[in-house]
Request: fold
Amino acid sequence: MEKIIEEEKQGTTLKLESKASNTRKLFIESYGCQMNFSDSEIVASILAKEGFNTTNRLEEADLVLVNTCSIRDKAEQTVRKRLEKYNRVKREQNPNMKVGVLGCMAERLKAKFLEEEKIVDMVVGPDAYKDLPNLVAEVDEGRDAVNVILSKEETYGDIAPVRLNSNGVTAFVSITRGCDNMCTFCVVPFTRGRERSRDPQSILEEIADLVSKGFKEVTLLGQNVDSFLWYGGGLKKDFKKASLMQQATAVDFAQLLHMVAAAQPNLRVRFSTSNPQDISDDVLHAIAQHRNICNYIHLPVQSGSNRILKEMNRLHTREEYMALIDRVHAIIPNCAVSQDMISGFPTETEEDHQDTLSLMEYVKYDYGFMFAYSERPGTMAARKMEDDVPEDVKKRRLNEIIDVQRRTGLERAQFFLGKTVEVLIEKESKRSDQHWAGRNTQNYMTIFPKDDYKVGEFVMVKVTDCTSATLIGEAVGYSDMAGPLTIEND
Ligand code: SAH
Ligand code: F3S
Reply:
């Protein structure tokens, strides 16, 4: 199975249960990161109160919303193609439909979007979704509507997301918004604003509600979850201005993990994304201590070269990262680690690239998400550096990175051969309706014959075969949810 996720291709139309009293039809689809998918659930919740049920048919939609991604140029091109499609449908089948763009492209392009794409009636940034009722009313009256104001406080903590297209087993729960890290290649700090954390109480309540509805796993989401800090609300950068009382009673990410894991001992907990400079040993100990926190950390590094890390404003060295990996393995037995890598950042030499490959050999990542550098307007790298690595060189380096990842991924997957792992059944396997698919604690997708097991059950699966990203095996019984997650077989 291919490990490289081309997230911008994963546009998904979301469907929601109908409310009988609702009369208007919303078509909403999302591109990009998990946060966008999670945000679309908030948007659907806000619009359900305004009389909208979702539909998966463009031809019958009164309102079409696309939640957009700006992370690479290709992601934006994908959205532009979707707008062309909406245009055709509007012209030929559905002349009254209105179109709104949400998310990072909306924030980046602002009102310019209305000029560039005539089909667009509404532009709404990631912090402005509560204004949607007003914006939709404007559009209903025939005016274009724009709100791209970024907020210091908005976390949507008070909105119960409508679970769209849900398998009823796994859900995302957003815990922070924005990012303060200012990696020089990255557009996110500009499109999602400054970092702020959500009230732990509202996080715990959302999770308790999910558990009561039968969900078995949550992924805590943020651009930089390890930076989570709740001190009563407001921006992370204003923490020092908070009262002594607020500072003393603040909740950090490790504490949040303890709270969630202890409150729901039968719920699996995952989180994403971790930033190497912000993840603390307390977080590693929390993972080790709670059986229900999964042994998997997504720990993007971007490059293995100290010089490039500095140019990227990643605030750690190669050596510090390697030491962190050593601590991960010392504290959490059998922890899986995945990466994000960028090939061809400005000024990257062959030597820098070799440093990336050798770091990958050292870490032996389980998975990876690998990209060729794409210059983003407005970022520090775009303003200060020339995009000087030729496209063919970026591609070649990317392929070399992917090759190493395939090899180490396969090596890591082979570790599980002959062992028995605990799997939460999520869905039918894409390749066979006779097999279930679910992940083990290390986040490996595991495929096995259905027998009499059901979606949402925890089962023990004996692994008999693997590819570099998938384990294949057979179920040997239910999990007791108390023993070890990986059993060493004789
Ligand atoms: N902290 C975020 C990271 C968002 S961006 C999170 O929650 O995942 C995801 C990945 O996209 C980054 O780690 C980086 O590897 C890649 N990326 C970001 N900007 C990029 C750019 N300009 N060109 C190529 N890849 C980029
Ligand atoms: Fe982007 Fe760096 Fe934040 S990659 S999302 S600025 S941690």
User: Anything to note?
Assistant: The pocket of FE3-S4 cluster (ligand 2) is lined by residues 179, 181-183, 186, 188-189, 223-224, 275 (CB under 6 Å). The longest helix spans residues 391-414. The first strand starts at residue 12 and ends at 13. Residues 1-11 have pLDDT under 50 and may be disordered.
